[in-house]
Structure formats: C-alpha cells, structure tokens
UniProtKB/TrEMBL annotation:
One GO-annotated biological process of the protein: carbohydrate metabolic process
Organism from which the protein derives: Alternaria burnsii
Enzyme class: hydrolase
Molecular function GO labels: alpha-galactosidase activity
Domain Alpha galactosidase C-terminal: 331-401
Signal peptide: 1-19
Name under which the protein is recorded: Alpha-galactosidase
UniProt-listed Enzyme Commission number(s): 3.2.1.22
Keyword Hydrolase found: yes
Membrane-spanning segments: none
Record keywords, A-Z: Disulfide bond, Glycosidase, Hydrolase, Signal
Length: 699
C-alpha cells in the first residue's frame, strides 16, 4: 500500500545508588492481604504454605511468601530489649520464625511487611500498630533473624498517628529521605529486596512533580505504580491505565520493577475471562506476580491461568521490557506489544468493549509481515499475518511472536500541524508548557464552557487513518476513577468520536505523551479537512479541563506569496537529497505544498534568528526516540516539505561561511531539518531567513 501524507496533531535524584543484583526479574509469590486483610494467623499461613507447595505453585516459580499487615503487636509497644517491632502473639503464639522455616523448607523465600510511618496501615483508624519510622535499624535487624529476603514497605501515618493521617495522598517532599533510611538498613543487614509501596503518590521536587518510576531507583528494587487494587474490572483498569506511561518511559528494568499490586485472580468481582486478562496484563507489564487469594479454594481452571508457563516465561524474560500500548481503539480494543530478549515479541490484545466478540490481531499493525503466532491461552501455533478468535467480554489474545519477518511496506509520512494555528473557542486557551515543543500548549478543553479547538486546512491521502496526538494528562486517580480523560474528536464537523487519553505522568508542565494513535474517519482525500477537539462530560467522567494541545512547527512554513516570489521564473528545478541524489520538482508543486500560512516571524526564538559562526550549534531532539544530537551550521539545510520525508535542498553556502542569512526583501520563516542515520527528524528550532536567497538552493 502506498502512503503519501498523513496527519500528526499534538495535544499537547537519588543519592544512594548501589549495584543491584536482586530482582533482576519480577518477584513471584503469595501475599496475605487480599485474602486475610490485616488478620493473618498461624493456622491460615500454615495452610497456605502447604497448599502453595502441593498445588504446584512453588515449582511454577511462586517462591516469595509474604505476610502483609496484621503480624505485629497491637499494644503499641516495642521489644524492650531490641527496640524492634513485636509479633502479635495472639495471632502467632509461636512467633514467625517457625513459619519462615516452614516456607523455606518448601523451597520458598520469606518476606516481611512494615510501614514508613509512625503506625502501620490497619483497618482500625487510628491504627494501634506501630510502624518503622525512626526505628529502621532495629526492625531491619529483626527481619534478618527471620531470614527475610524482601520487604514490602508501606506509606501510612507518615505525619503522625491521627486517624486523619492514615493514608496521605498529597504530593510529598520526604519520600527519598524517609524510604531511603530503611533501604540503607536492609542493605546493612543483607536483605536485598525492597518494595516501596507509596501508592503512586507524586514526589514534589524543585523541578516539579515526579512519579515513583523517577525517584525510587537506587533506594529500592521495586515500586508500587498505583494505589491499591480492589475487586472488579474497574479497579484493574485504573491501574492498567496508570501503567501506560510507565511502560513507555523506558525507565523500568532489572532491579527497578514497576509493581502493579497484588493479583486478584481467585477473588470475587471479575469474571473468569477478566481474571485471565488481568493476569496476562500483569505478566506482560513485567509486574510482580503475587497471588493473594485462598489457594486451597482455587479452581483448577484458575490454577492453570496462574501457572501458565508461557506467560510466566514472558514475565521472567531477562530483558524486563514491559509491553507498551501501541494503539487504543477507544471503546473497542487495546493493542500492546514488547520485545523479548531473544528477538521474539509479546503481544496482548484486550477487549475494552465489554462484549463477546471476535478479537483480531493484524501483524501489519506492528509493522510485521508474518511470524509464527503462538496463542498463549491454547498453546497452539500458526504461521501467518493475523490471528482471530472468539472471546468473552474483556477477554484477550495473549500471543508470542517468533520467526518475525518485518514489513517492507512504505511507512506513512506525517505532517506536523500546530494546534496554535487552530481556532480556539469557548474558553480554550494557549498556556505555557516547558516540556512542550515551542514551550506552549492549548488547554481548558471541555469544562462548563465546553472549550474547543478546530484545526483547519489539513490534507491527507486516506479517508480513515490513524492520527497521532501529543497530550498531557496529569490527573492521578487513586482508589476511584480510571486514570484516563476523554475528549470528543470530530472530522469535518461529523459525529464526534469519544477518545480515551490515559494518564501521561504527573507534571502538567512536562509529562507529554507523544504519538498517541487515534483512528479517525471522514477525511476528504481531495480537499482540505478540519479536526475539532473538545471535552466530554457525563455522570461517570468529568469534563476535560486540562487536556493539552502542544504547539508543533507547521509542515508548510512558507507563506504563499513568499513562495511564489522565491521560485518565480523557475519552471523546473531539482532539490538535492542528503544522499546526493535529486528529485525533480516544479515551482507549481512547491506552491501546492502550502497548506498553512505562517503569519509572522514573532514566534521565532530570538536566539535562533541568526546563526553567525560555523561553531554555533542547536540541540535538536530526534522525532523518533527523543534522544539528542548536536548539529552544527554545516548540518543545517532548508527546504519546503516535499511529499515525503526524504528530499531536502542543499545547505546555503553562506551559513557554512558564518555569514548571516542571505539578504533580501522578505521575511519567510524556514524550518531546519537534519538527518541521523536513516531517520529524518524535524529540528525543533526555527530560523528566520530572507526569501530572495532561496533561489540558489535548488538547481
């Protein structure tokens, strides 16, 4: 299939760093909380240890046994001799050591729970159970006596023992210092693993808010990416949406695991198919897999889900690369995919329509021509370019691709369209944004006034296509909500499509989610088009007040009059590619490229208006992976965007000589491009130039 022109819209320090050998892959095991809350006891724990062994879970890899809250004394006293937390002898008359010994005799590893507050989390508020804050050394020493290898460290009562201080969700400045103390003490006594369980609450720094993926590395081996999971699909989906930006960040990996919380498989609230999808998602997101249910009561069917060897192998893959959301078809399905260490690919397709249906994967959606396709639910493998099967509501395709043959089809090219060129109405406005291209964005979409923006003069070659959005959604949802905001997007005034935009991070000024694909229909392939974005409100979903539109450089950057004057008299020219070849182009073709007039040079950064010496350099982010490459004046070239990403005119000689731009009597604005290996990227800096000099660029 030949693509010519598509559309890209834009909406939009840790001190203790140690060599980390623990948790090179996610932990697998069992935790008491979802089954027992804060009421474990010797009999329950003994039964569970024996059942995990007899039902094959230990052999399947579930080796970390963890008692959550409820093990410590409720009398508000510490051990008079050691100063450590005391065991609740009413629940555990023989203490915890015999249970640790039993678990270890069955091939498991013992893990403990405590809290980085003055009290532990507890259903009773205020909690009568002491936390570890201020007593980290004594408690670490006690944990070591139990042969502990891993500690879950919670975040209740950080500011005091009052009931109102139970579970603070406000942004905090003390996370690194407070959690870092326990990390240091655990390392001192030889306990290698720590899960920082601070529920995805933002860390407040001098440069803005950060999520746990950014600040926990070096003081833990894993972090909770979200608030607690509860029963039901909605809770699972909230965490699933919160994982989207973390998986995309590229910051997780061996020794730095994003924990999506305990598994709900075996508990009430989800259908069998929903539980299977939940397990597959946690496995492919490279979360810890901690069973938290009544193990003896598990059905054989659910045991088979939890012991699925293929999904466990993906979870334990040495690369520890989570699948990333490749595309969401809102209200229909999600497509996730991620590379494995041996070159295979893990793929998850999830029904989000909540209906029984045929669910399909087309490998072309992943730029793959063909592969061996293994259905991880059935174990069957086929060779081909697609897979379809019947699933129930919220069911999934869990797939492993091998023998992958990449597609050689021409990839679509995207035209950058600036939101600032759109028409803002009903309160939508331009706002500053340090993480956005051109340092601003369009916000206040939705709300009581239903703010909206309409982008015009869009040309494309396909009536139905994927439009790429950059956006910011920094609204973190905790026990409620879905960690997504929605927008109404319409093409050419047609019926609006409700589009889900998952959480993009914590910082409304910086955390831009780039190239989020949205399939839209109704485009004209012969004329110009409009796209209108506004908020959506309902009883379940608040209107979008802050879905952001970020400025990008327009693809057509000459005014029509300047372009006509520049190429006046040139009936045929040729523009040079970087590889030295030429592409024929006429003046008329160049003029046809103008789909948007850049009205003024006032928007051009002052520092970029004149490049006066050969050593002047600008730092240009790659459009592909956000890495940077320094480009000197010698690298810079100027040319209108010609139908594909390949042809650019040769550099203006005066630039290489350190002169100012060629003299002339115009004020056209040019966009600077550069080439990095085979990738052509749009430099985010503009340069003002005089139009008369452009005739010498093409020959």
């Amino acid at each position: 299939m030949m693509w010519t022109n598509s559309v890209l819209l834009t909406l939009a320090g840790v001190t203790h760093v140690a060599s980390q050998s623990f948790q090179q892959t996610p932990v697998m095991g069992w935790n008491s909380y979802n089954q027992m809350s804060c009421s474990p006891n010797t009999q329950k724990i003994t039964t569970t240890i024996n059942s995990l062994s007899s039902r094959g879970f230990v052999d399947a890899g579930y080796k970390f046994f963890q008692i959550d809250c409820g093990w410590a004394s409720r009398d508000g006293q510490r051990n008079a001799t050691s100063g450590a937390l005391k065991v609740d002898l009413n629940a555990f008359p023989g203490g915890l050591k015999p249970l640790s010994d039993l678990a270890r005799s069955k091939g498991m590893k013992w893990t403990m729970y405590s809290d980085a507050g003055v009290r532990m989390c507890d259903p009773q508020a205020p909690s009568p159970v002491l936390g570890s804050l201020g007593h980290e050394a004594a408690d670490a020493d006690f944990f070591k006596t139990l042969n502990t290898e891993y500690v879950k460290y919670d975040n209740c009562y950080a500011d005091g023992p009052a009931a109102s201080q139970n579970a603070p969700k406000n942004a905090r400045t003390d996370f690194v210092s407070r959690f870092g103390v326990m990390w240091k003490e655990l390392q001192r006594v030889g306990i290698p693993g720590l899960l920082i369980c601070q529920w995805g609450v933002p860390f407040s720094t001098s440069t803005g808010l950060q999520g746990p993926v950014q600040w926990t590395k070096g003081i833990s081996t894993s972090f909770r990416l979200s608030d607690d999971i509860t029963s039901g699909w909605a809770s699972m989906f909230r965490i699933y949406n919160q994982a989207v930006h973390i998986a995309k960040s590229g910051l997780v990996g061996p020794g730095h695991i994003a924990d999506a919380d305990l598994l709900m498989v075996g508990n009430s609230g989800m259908t069998f198919d929903e539980q299977a999808t939940h397990f597959a998602a946690w496995a492919m997101l490279k979360s810890a897999l901690m069973i938290s249910t009544d193990v003896p009561a598990l059905s054989n069917e659910l045991v088979a889900v939890l012991q699925n060897k293929d999904l466990i192998a993906i979870n334990q893959d040495s690369a520890v690369k989570p699948v990333t959301l490749r595309q969401r078809w809102s209200g229909d399905r999600d497509l996730w995919a991620g590379d494995l260490a041996n070159g295979d690919m893990a793929v998850l397709v999830v029904d989000i329509s909540n209906t029984a249906r045929t669910l399909s994967l087309q490998l072309s959606e992943l730029d793959i021509a063909s592969a061996s396709i293994k259905d991880l639910w059935t174990g069957t493998t086929i060779s081909g370019a697609s897979l379809s099967k019947q699933v129930k509501a919220h069911g999934s395709l869990a797939i492993r691709l091998s023998n992958i043959r990449r597609s050689t089809a021409t990839k679509p090219t995207y035209t950058f369209v600036s939101a600032s060129t759109g028409s803002l109405s009903s309160g939508a406005n331009t706002q500053s944004c340090s993480g956005c291209t051109s340092s601003n964005k369009v916000g206040n979409l939705g709300g009581s006034s239903n703010g909206r923006v309409t982008i015009s003069n869009i040309r494309t070659s396909k009536a139905t296509q994927t439009v790429l959005f950059d956006y910011i959604n920094g609204q973190v949802d905790y026990m409620g909500g879905s960690n997504e905001r929605v927008a109404a997007v319409s093409v050419n005034g047609g019926a609006a499509k409700t589009v889900s935009f998952p959480l993009s991070g914590y910082n409304w000024d910086k955390d831009v989610y780039k190239s989020y694909g949205v399939e839209l229909s109704g485009f004209s392939t012969t004329g110009t088009n409009t796209i209108t974005i506004s908020g959506v409100g309902s009883a379940q979903q608040s209107p979008i007040h802050n879905m952001q539109l970020q400025h990008l450089i327009p693809a057509a950057f000459f005014s029509a009059s300047a372009l006509a004057a520049t190429f006046n008299g040139f009936s045929d020219t040729a523009c040079q590619r970087y590889d030295g070849t030429y592409i024929p182009v006429t003046a008329a073709q160049l003029q046809d490229l103008v789909v948007q007039e850049w009205a003024t040079t006032d928007a051009v950064p002052e520092a970029s208006r004149f490049l006066t010496t050969p050593d002047d350099k600008k730092k240009c982010p790659s459009n592909e992976d956000d890495t940077y490459r320094w480009v000197s004046l010698h690298d810079l070239g100027v040319l209108p965007y010609i139908n594909t990403l390949h042809p650019w005119c040769i550099q203006i000689p005066q630039w290489e000589q350190g002169s100012q731009f060629p003299a002339g009597n115009g004020g056209a604005v040019a966009v600077v491009y550069y080439k990095d290996t085979d990738t052509y990227s749009l430099c985010r800096y503009l340069a003002a130039a005089q139009q008369d000099g452009y005739a010498g660029m093409c020959r």
